[in-house]
Every structure is written in structure tokens, then in C-alpha cells.
Write a structure and sequence with these properties.
The chain is an all-alpha fold. 74% of the residues lie in helices and 0% in strands. GO terms for molecular function: DNA binding.
Length: 286
């Protein structure tokens, strides 16, 4: 673990223990074993540190979920079971993250933290909803928001038992148990029942789930435009830059294999802005 990650882990524990407003940068520095002045080389403020904690851990989580999703050998049900297991394991290993979200931090630190946590919730709901539709088919779509919300609610309560009350719950067993309960929920709602949530009511969550992803796409397109402007000669490099831009502009229908092939081709030329372009594309497809 690097120094920056060590500071975040220390701060997370201190925030969970004392509360965000009661914890000071001086205490965080002392527990991290660094001078107070040095901590500002990594984080400009306590607020930025809190934002970084949430962003770092959820980026790790969603990256692991994406790896499981990419496994073609898994059925939709097995994929969600493994993803839930990974999610539970992460919160079990970082119990303070659950405590931070339950306490004052998420709601009262700042607008930036509040908006970030909302985007995380929206992203999580979108992931559950998509997984539920993959398992149970198109017939569940009218009630998929309700199913995803109930799955999220059940998991949240069990995470409190695990992280706050220290109940000895096994991640694999809990994930399988939640999926069995989800079966019953879906069966009930498909048996002539009507859900409460629809796309109109949940439009803000749907928009938030795609907002950050679209920002990474726009950043990648901006890199491509600047790279093309620095390379005015009509050749294979310029044509590849244009093809890559055209593919990304397709949005949801962009062919990932084509994007990755073009990116791999451009890697041979050590082009300016290539690393920034590569990061933006990887984050877009995360």
C-alpha cells in the first residue's frame, strides 16, 4: 500500500471513530506517521480526502465487478452471486466505509461528497437492475427498479450486522441467501403485482448512473481531437485517430473490440496524450 492509500485508510478509520467534523488533519497525519504539512502534498483539504476515500474504494469495487461480468463462462445468476460476494467481502475488509456512509459524513461533509455518494448509489442501482434483467429476462423490466431497490435494502441491513455489529456472516453464504430471497421477490411481483418505481420517477438515478461515464467519453474524444491537430499529415495514424473518434461517438453501440484494437495500434507510436487517452477509454468502459 502506498503512502496516499495509507493516509486514506487511516482517515477512514478516524472518521468512522470520531465523525468527520471531529477528526482533524493533525490527528490523521499523526496516526499516518507523516508531518501535518506533508499530508497536504496528497490532499488539499479534509473534504478532498473524504471524497478520495469514497471514490477510491468504489472504483476498486466496480473494477472487480467488471472483471466478473467479463467472464463468458458464468451464467447471469452465477455472475451476480460472485459480484455480491465480492461486494460483501470489500465491506467486510473495510468496515469503516460502511460506518462512514451510515454516519454524518456522506450527508453533511459537503455538496461534492453528497453528490458523489448519490452517483455511487445510482451506479449500484443500475448494476443491480441490469443484473436482475439478465437473470429473469425482459418480463421483469417493469418492476426491475423495485427489485433492485429491495435487493439493495436487504444487503445494506446485513452489511450493518457485518460491519457495525460484527456478526459472523460469511460473504458467500450471504450472497447465495440474498439471491434466493430475490427469487421470491421477483416471483411475487411477476404474479400480477405492480411495482412502485418506474423510469419517470427514477429519471434522476438513471441520469446519474451514466453521467460520469459520458464525461470519460468526452475526455477521450477531446484527447483524440488534440492528437489529430498535432498530427496534420494524412497517414495511418491520423486515420486511426479518426476511426477511434467515430467509434466512441456511437456511445452505447460503440464496439469495444474495435476501440481496443485501434488503441493497441496507436500504442506503437508513443504519441503525446496517449496515456491520457488510454485512461479515459478504460474508465469509459469500466
Amino acid at each position: 500500500m502506498g503512502r496516499k492509500e495509507d493516509i486514506m485508510e487511516t482517515a477512514m478509520k478516524l472518521f468512522a471513530e470520531k465523525g468527520y467534523h471531529a477528526a482533524s488533519m493533525q490527528e490523521i497525519a499523526e496516526r499516518s506517521g507523516v508531518a501535518k504539512g506533508s499530508i497536504y502534498n496528497y490532499f488539499k483539504s479534509k473534504e478532498e480526502l473524504a471524497v478520495s476515500i469514497f471514490r477510491y474504494h468504489y472504483e476498486v469495487l466496480f473494477r472487480q465487478l467488471k472483471q466478473i461480468e467479463a467472464d463468458p463462462a458464468l451464467t447471469a445468476r452465477e455472475r451476480l452471486r460472485r459480484q455480491l460476494t465480492v461486494q460483501i467481502q470489500l465491506f467486510d475488509e473495510h468496515k469503516e466505509l460502511v460506518q462512514m456512509q451510515l454516519g454524518e459524513q456522506a450527508a453533511k461533509v459537503s455538496d461534492e461528497v453528497r453528490h458523489l455518494v448519490f452517483r455511487i448509489r445510482a451506479h449500484t442501482l443500475h448494476w443491480y437492475r441490469r443484473a436482475i434483467e439478465d437473470i429473469y429476462g425482459e418480463q421483469v423490466r417493469p418492476v426491475s427498479f423495485d427489485c433492485a431497490t429491495m435487493l439493495n435494502g436487504m444487503l445494506k441491513e446485513y452489511l450493518i450486522y457485518l460491519a457495525v455489529d460484527r456478526k459472523p456472516l460469511l460473504p458467500e453464504k450471504l450472497a447465495a441467501f440474498l439471491l434466493d430471497r430475490l427469487d421470491a421477490i421477483v416471483a411475487s411481483l411477476l404474479d400480477g403485482k405492480t411495482g412502485l418505481l418506474d423510469e419517470t420517477m427514477m429519471a434522476d438515478y438513471m441520469a446519474a448512473a451514466t453521467q460520469e461515464r459520458n464525461q470519460w467519453k468526452e475526455r477521450a474524444i477531446s484527447c483524440l481531437e488534440r492528437m489529430a491537430a498535432m498530427h496534420p499529415v494524412e497517414d495511418d495514424i491520423l486515420r486511426s485517430l479518426r476511426l477511434l473518434k467515430e467509434e466512441l461517438e456511437k456511445g452505447e453501440t460503440a464496439r469495444r473490440f474495435m476501440v481496443e484494437a485501434l488503441l493497441l495500434y496507436l500504442a506503437k507510436y508513443s504519441l503525446p496524450l496517449y496515456n491520457e487517452l488510454k485512461e479515459a477509454i478504460e474508465r469509459y468502459f469500466d
